[in-house]
Amino acid sequence: MKTNPMIKQMLDYQKTTFDKLFNAMVLVQEQGEKMTNALFEQVTWLPEENKRLMDQCLTMAKQGRDDLKSAVDDNYKNVSDLLASK
Question: C-alpha angle 71/75/79, rounded to 5°?
């Protein structure tokens, strides 16, 4: 059975849209991280433990973001491969 080219186009469009939105989200998160780091550098009365905790939170957010991107990319590839095999 031949795959409809429109389905492939829709999948490509969705992948492109996701990538662009994801990159925008990354930029927003990175800007927030820069602002947070700048704030913590200026606030001398904040305990170091709180700064370490915030660093851990930022690291976990980055890891979650990377895991999401990897999972979505893998699934798009799986669907593309499935469509190509038909």
Answer: 175
